[in-house]
Design a protein that fits this description.
The chain is an alpha/beta fold. The protein has twelve helices and eleven strands. The chain folds into two domains: about 270 residues, 3-Layer(aba) Sandwich (Rossmann fold), CATH 3.40.50; about 80 residues, Beta-grasp domain (Ubiquitin-like (UB roll), Roll), CATH 3.10.20.30.
Length: about 400
Amino acid sequence: MITLALAGKPNCGKSTLYRAATMAPAEIANYPFTTIDANRGVAYVRVPCPCTALSHRCGVCADGIRYVAVHLIDVAGLVPEAHTGKGLGNQFLDNLRQADAIIQVIDASGGTDIEGNPVDPGSFDPLDEIPMLKNEMAMWLCGIIEKHWAKMQRQAQSRTFSIYTGIAEILAGLSIREEHLVEAERDAGIHLRTASPSDLVGFSRILMPRAKPMIIAANKADLASPELIAKVRTAGAVLTSGAAELALRSAASAHLITYQPGDPDFAIPDEGKLNPAQKTGLEKMRAYMKQYNGTGVQTIINTAVLELLDMIVVYPVEDETHFTDGQGRVLPDAFLMKKGSTPHDLAYQVHTDIGKGFLYAVDAKSKMRIKESTLLKDGDIIKIVSTAK
Ligand SMILES: Nc1nc2c(ncn2[C@@H]2O[C@H](COP(=O)(O)OP(=O)(O)OP(=O)(O)O)[C@@H](O)[C@H]2O)c(=O)[nH]1
Ligand SMILES: [Mg+2]
């Protein structure tokens, strides 16, 4: 399953975003290093369900909205010089190994310094947080390579030894491909076989963003001044209010409001159930959501998966006439696939045996058999015909 990780300085709202997105427990507090051990949970990408265009509704989606699961990890806060052991150090960055992409959380309100201590709102520049995390992550990566470097250079004396394979092995689990290494070596202007420790720093800085694509969540946007909002937006950040999303989801589970994650607004079925404080709180959130088109929490997850990781959602079925699986369930599964995947790739994702025995695929919407080389499209409903059952 796709894995996203929330990372950033302490006290910027990572655990709040995590709780809002997963509705799983996690400690939240207004001081640095509240989180020590990583939290892991399930969040969802929101997409329109293709069943709305069919004669049978699927029974899985909520009013035509389909939520597709991804893993979400919330890690401890990172401070400058974490790679030399400051704060909680950077050992916990190992939690990011499994992440396909990183959501860097910054405090858009400028109300906490680089170490997460509360300061006057607006007195800290949130954009200063961005290079800090990049730097610490690059130094972490560099540290992993350096640990093995002496041995690697000895091995590199042998002509048959591939330095790329060697590094790829050290970084196993980080989803780094050998071509990333070749490109980063070229762009850093170094020769890996003879690289010095300082060469490795430059190399790691270039390699890091290729290995772990990153997107920025400008959180606590509900507290941010218009100037800071404009500033973080110019830097390409997605505005989020983890606190608002968490409050809305909690209110929805208590049946005080009707709200689906990612909706631009919510409804209050019975005003009488709310106390005055709840009413004022909800009105504030509504004003915020109107201005910024929702709380931004769903947007950041969708953007990370669908745009940053360039994925589409595809629906495999066994019966292309009724769009069902073997038990008659309509569109039971939704798979996130990298754009550029083929039906054969989908077959492998469903099951290795189905992939091995792949014969051909049928586009269930047109009922046409599709060529193996055809690329899957977002929202495709596909029947796979395989020798394996
Ligand atoms: N107004 C507002 N407050 C928020 C928001 N997100 C988080 N907070 C508050 O910011 C403080 C820190 O939140 P946490 O979620 O614990 O932050 P963290 O990044 O996980 O912190 P560490 O685990 O210490 O690194 C808490 O007081 C939250 O209530 C937000 O979107 N808006
Ligand atoms: Mg935390």
